[in-house]
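During data preparation, a discrete fold description was generated, and the record follows.
___
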Amino acid sequence: MGMKQNLQAGFTLIELVMVIVILGILAATALPKFVDLKSDAEQAAINGVAGAVTSAFAVNYASYAANSTKGTAVSGTAVPSTLAGSIMVGGMPNGYSITTASAACGTAGATQTVQISSTTASTFKTASATLICTS
């Protein structure tokens, strides 16, 4: 009888090195996409705050139009930057403010654009919100 040969199957060192090199190349091409996610997240957050401010102004206008004792009057030539904080339940979220100091309100239902800015973002981020005048 002949001797049985003990054959082992496996990967060679060259094959393993090539797999590591390929994984490194894939990681290097995908990394820049993930690095910029913070900036995108900060912009999405301020867009969400601007949407909430716009919604608060719309609800305030509807309340005031239905019953003038239920909403906050938004009129005159100088609308203070603290207005959103007084209209929104709980006030403006921490780290966000209205950078447009005043907007002119004329007739009821007229709209003005106000700028919301983030004070905590790594880079200066802004978004627009729509103010609806009550009278």
